[in-house]
Amino acid sequence: MAEGGTVHDRFWPSVGMLPSMLPAALLSGSMAPITAWGLAMTSVLSRRTLLDGLAACAVTSSTAIAQGACRDGYGQGRCPLPVAQATAPIKEVFDPTGWKTLALESFTIDVLDYRKEAAFYEALMGWKIRDDDGKQAVMDIGDWGNCIFRGAASDSFGPGAPGRPAPRAAVRSFAWVIDKWDARKVAAALEQRGMAPIAENKGAFESFRVKDPDGWDLQICNGKGLSSARKRPPSAESLAPVPFAPTGWKTVWLDHVSFRVSNYKRSVSFYANLLGWQRSYDEGSQNELMVADIGDVLCRGGNPFISEQVRGPAGASIDHISFGIAPWDVEDVRGALEARGLRAQIDTSSAHLGPDNKIIQDDIYQAAFQSYHTNTPNGFNLQISWNTIDKRLALANAVKPRALRKPPSQAQ
To answer: Which of 403, 397, 145 is nearest to 288 (CA)?
Structure first.
């Protein structure tokens, strides 16, 4: 196929027909010539052509909703406000603490079968087990973070969405190491800002748990816990068999945490002023926060200038986490996922209008942001991307509305 062409351009009367028309051999990666369906085709369908076609039909309504509501413009659909109002600042929730986030201490994720989940991440993402006490596994994410997988009962996850399986995994909290640690001063600063800190200490490790504006469990720590332990190689062994051959990948970057909140402007103000996270830009429905040299947290949710969006009860959740891996190659990563029986859903986040005026994802080979989504054994939505610290805002820039790319005086 000529460079820049698509499956739609060459072969198909409707790109939406692609999944039903592709034979199983092609979906498994076969490069056999196409002669079926009464079409006189002698061309070989290359793997790149297949990826182009699958990307074109992968953009469903649910995928579109996963991106910023204002990506495709202001004063329309899911982004009804004009740009100036949608992106207007709010009063800061409190004065800055002056703290800086130094490290990711941990994510805590409840799952139905924690050992199966840990073995999966060990084989796929190169994580190492630091400890397993029979109730939870603590894993090193390279030398820059930890994840705690806790076993949990099935009824602890609540009901699933209509027509979807009951959830078996849920992120429950995250913990961050800050500078200028003095327990008394930290507690006082938290109380002055309306929080009720609860101390959680063990030996030299000191921390406080607080609730953010949505009731999310946030732990603020000194640097003498897991962040310190990571300097020593883990010695624990996996107590569950790995589900497949290791990929050899290394998890090198926290690409983004998809943090769903009730009022994203309030949450952005809270974390920026409390933990020193840096704001990228206000899109009207989300804002990507840069957490030092650790990674990014994408706060997304209701806009307070649209009353119906923030009228409901407060609440927060993490619907997926994206990790940057190395080495990265579009076809090799997809092939490794598929060879292990895993979903490999293309996500470039950026998109364009196709010939039928439907939104089509940009070609993953040319997109500024390249990634795949897959599912863990307990059903968590894991995203794998090529992002590193050098590309940290590739996603944010890829979905930046056109109005925000212009001087404010020209924005419409």
So the answer is: 397
